[in-house]
Write a structure and sequence with these properties.
The structure holds 2 protein chains of 2 kinds. By secondary structure, chain A is of the alpha+beta class. Chain A is built from 3 helices and 4 strands; from the N terminus they run ββααββα. The N and C termini of chain B lie far apart (67 Å). Chain B is mostly helical. The chains are: A alpha+beta, B mainly alpha.
C-alpha cells in the first residue's frame, strides 16, 4: 500500500504492516480525544517512524493516490482536528 | 483515524478540480494550476531563506555584542573592578538567552527550507509526469474515452497539490510568526537597549567607566616612566591596550551620547 506522510511524500509499505500501524494509529487517536498534547506527539512520532522504517519512498514521478494519508510530523492536535474536519487544506 | 483523514483529504483535494465541458481541456487547465503551484512553492523556499538570513544577521549582531561584554568583563577584572565585570556578565547572560532563542528559530527555518525544497522537487517530477500523460491522453482518446484516464491522472497529482499547498501554508505561518519576533529584536538592537540589558538608556556605561580608568592608568604609567627616566617606557605607553568604545551600528542614541 501507498502511505503519504504530509509534508514528506509517499512511501510504499508492505500490506502486512497495516495491523501494526493501526495499533499505533489508535494511540494517536486516543491522545487526540484526551487532548493530551505530549502523548499525542509521542504517539504520532511512533506512527510516522513505523511508516518510515517499514516503507520505501516511491519514485519522484510516481503519480497515484495514497491508501493512507498521515499528518505532518510536527502537527498539533488542533491541526489534526482540522484535517479531520476537512479544514485547513489548500487544494490545488 | 488515518483512514478518516485520508478520505477527507482526498475528497477535498479532488473537489478543487474544475470540470470543463471537454475533459481534455480540464487537463490543460489543471496543468496550468500545477505550474502555478510549482512557482508558489519555489517562492515559499525563497521566503523562508530570506527569514533565515535575517535571523543569522541578528544572531551575529547579538554575538558581537556578547563578545564585547566578555572583553569588558575581562578588562574590568584586570583593573580590579569586580562590580563592573559582574554587570557586564549579567548583561551578557541576557543576550545568551536571546541568542539561544534565535538559534532554535534558525534551525526550525532551516528544516522548513529543506522540506519545501524537497516538496518542490517532488512536485516538479510529478508535474512533468502528468504533462506526458496529458499529451498521451489528448492524442489517443476521444473526449468520451478520455474521462476515466483523466480521473486516474488527476487523483495522484491533486493529492500532491493538496500536500504541497498545505506545506507552503504552514511554512508561511511559521515564517510570519518568526518575522514578528525578528522585528521586535531589530527594534531592540536599534534602540540600543540590548547594549545595556539591565536598564534602558543608560548607554554603554561600562565602556565609559573602563575608559576613564584606563586613561587614568595610562597617565599613571607614563608619569612613572618619566620619573624613572626611561624613554622606552614612554614609547611603549600608547601601546597599552586602549579600551575600545566604538559606537554600535544602528544605535544612534548611543552615538549621540558618546559624541
Amino acid at each position: 500500500m501507498i502511505v503519504r506522510i504530509l509534508g514528506e511524500g509517499q512511501l510504499e509499505v508492505a500490506d502486512d504492516e497495516l495491523e501494526t500501524l493501526n495499533k499505533l494509529d489508535r494511540r494517536v487517536e486516543a491522545a487526540v480525544e484526551a487532548e493530551d498534547e505530549s502523548a499525542f506527539s509521542t504517539a504520532l512520532a511512533a506512527l510516522l517512524d513505523g511508516v518510515r522504517r517499514s516503507g520505501a519512498p516511491v519514485p519522484a514521478d510516481f503519480l497515484d493516490d495514497s491508501d493512507l494519508i498521515l499528518p505532518p510530523s510536527d502537527a498539533t492536535i488542533d491541526e489534526v482536528r482540522h484535517l479531520l474536519e476537512g479544514d485547513g487544506l489548500i487544494p490545488g | 483515524m488515518m483512514k478518516r483523514i485520508s478520505t477527507i483529504f482526498r475528497a477535498k483535494a479532488n473537489s478543487a478540480l474544475d470540470k470543463a465541458e471537454d475533459p481534455r481541456e480540464t487537463l490543460d487547465y489543471s496543468y496550468q494550476r500545477q505550474l502555478e503551484m510549482l512557482t508558489k512553492v519555489r517562492r515559499g523556499v525563497a521566503d523562508v531563506a530570506t527569514s533565515r538570513k535575517r535571523i543569522e544577521l541578528q544572531r551575529n549582531q547579538l554575538q558581537s555584542q556578547s563578545d564585547k561584554l566578555t572583553e569588558q568583563a575581562q578588562k574590568a577584572i584586570s583593573v580590579g573592578r569586580e562590580d563592573l565585570a559582574r554587570e557586564a556578565l549579567t548583561r551578557k547572560s541576557a543576550l545568551t538567552g536571546q541568542i539561544a532563542d534565535l538559534d532554535a528559530q534558525h534551525s526550525q527555518l532551516q528544516g522548513e527550507e529543506e522540506k519545501l525544497t524537497l516538496a518542490a522537487q517532488r512536485l516538479q517530477a510529478k508535474v512533468e509526469s502528468f504533462r506526458t500523460r496529458k499529451e498521451t491522453i489528448k492524442a489517443t482518446y476521444t473526449a468520451a474515452e478520455a474521462q476515466t484516464r483523466i480521473g486516474e491522472a488527476f487523483s495522484g497529482i491533486s493529492e500532491e497539490m493538496g500536500d504541497v499547498g498545505m506545506a507552503v501554508q504552514r511554512a508561511e505561518d511559521k515564517t510570519q510568526q518568526m518575522q514578528a519576533r525578528a522585528g521586535a529584536i531589530d527594534e531592540l538592537i536599534a534602540s540600543g537597549a540590548l547594549d545595556d540589558a539591565s536598564s534602558v538608556n543608560r548607554g554603554d556605561d561600562i565602556s565609559r567607566e573602563l575608559e576613564a580608568m584606563s586613561s587614568q592608568s595610562d597617565v599613571e604609567a607614563e608619569l612613572a616612566a618619566l620619573k624613572g627616566g626611561s624613554p622606552q617606557a614612554i614609547d611603549a605607553a600608547p601601546e597599552t591596550p586602549v579600551i575600545e568604545d566604538t559606537p554600535q551600528e544602528g544605535s544612534p542614541q548611543e552615538k549621540g551620547q558618546q559624541a
